Amino acid sequence: MFKNILIRFGELSLKGKNKMNFVNILAQNIRKICNVEYKDMIIQIDRIFIPFSAENINNLNYVFGISSFSPVIKIDSDLSTIETKLLSIDLDKYSSFKINCRRKWKEFPMNSMELNQHLGNLILTNKKNLKVKVKDADIEVNVEIHADFAYIFWEKIKGLGGLPVNSSGKVLHLLSGGIDSPVAALEMIKRGVKVNFLSFISPPHTDETTIKKIKMIVNELTKYQIESRLFLFNYTDLMNYIGLTSNQAYKIVLMRRSFYRIADNIAKKFQCLGISNGENLGQVASQTLEAMNTIHSQTTLPIYQPLLTNDKIETINKSEKFNLFQISTIKACETCEIFAPNHPATKPNNEVAIQLENELDMLKELEKKSLDENVELCYFNNKGNNKY
Q1: What letters, b where the CB count within 10 A reaches 16 and e where it falls short, cover 81-98?
Q2: Fewest C-beta atoms under 10 Å: which of 78, 115, 235, 287?
Q3: 98 pLDDT above the threshold of 90
């Protein structure tokens, strides 16, 4: 019965003269995620049409930048054809209805209000069990009249909202196997950002389960952004060296300062416009304002923290909604967890951190060597054709 899927925009409707740039990026994302050809798409300034299929309906749930979408019946813009098709719809399971007509083709003999009244009376005459209900009707039947075709639809499926991926630049995201950082990455993707991932592993302390878990998370997130890069950084030598510090309370601070120096190098090499993370203010010792100030000073790039003020329950709910929670709660050994001291510094001082790094006089040299030798680059795409 359905011929097309009507796709509506959310925030894109607010864009000005560059709106079509966003629409074209959205169309490209839909094409890649839904496997449709451009020739089979109708791209307009306020909507996109693609061929109907159950697979396409499912795949649109992975496309950011869409406010809602509907399966539509496509017919000729002829009143008798519209009447016949309208009466063929199975309305017997409903007790109330509403008709909502839009005459976008101004040469059609009835205006929108007249068409509402005419088609409403038609249904009332032929469907005796139905009554009109302007608010909260069981079904709202929409009819749109265009010059070439008319569309009939009644189901409106909520989209993900946000902006189309690749419309807002690129960041490098610090990814762990926990709950927060995957959700934070998703929040960046929702705002149109293309996210590259950086994870620190420390074999043999972190095992294959840890690496597999990280890859599973990136694979799940790639469904929303089509392609991803994951930098797996072997941090074992650096972790062992930092462990020699004379102030054990600063171990995590020194390690995370090192993370940001490394991230800064990789981000700039791959033209990323910032570094993002899953930090949540006050959640752990390294996420106090003092700690973040001391740690983040190691990069000149902007740092984006979409979960900074989230309640933990908010983050868990989103993790569950997007099928990340089950992966994030797999038991594994995280680099930060196994390295954490019993009594970490919660209000570290930048000057003390610099002094301790000066004592570890081979630290910067080890970081440079590891950047050259200990980084594995993995590629992911939404078809599952991943390369490790």
Answers
A1: ebeebbeebebeebebbb
A2: 78
A3: yes
Q: In this structure, are strands 131-132 and 47-51 parallel, antiparallel, or unpaired?
A: unpaired
Long-range contacts of 383-388 (CB under 8 A, 24+ apart): 384/219, 386/215, 386/219, 388/215
* 51, two tokens: 């061929």
pLDDT tens digits, one per residue of 310-352: 999 999 999 999 999 999 999 887 666 666 777 889 899 999 9
pTM: 0.91
Write the CATH number for 369: 3.40.50.620
Burial class (CB within 10 angstroms; exposed 0-12, middle 13-18, buried 19+) of 212: middle
Residue at which a domain ends, from 140, 161, 182: 161
What value does the mean pLDDT take over residues 366-378?
A: 95
Is 260's pLDDT higher than 80?
Answer: yes
Do both 253 and 230 map to the same domain? yes
Q: Are residues 41 and 126 in the same domain?
A: yes
Q: Which domain holds residue 372?
A: 170-381
> What is the token pair recorded at 52?
């109907």
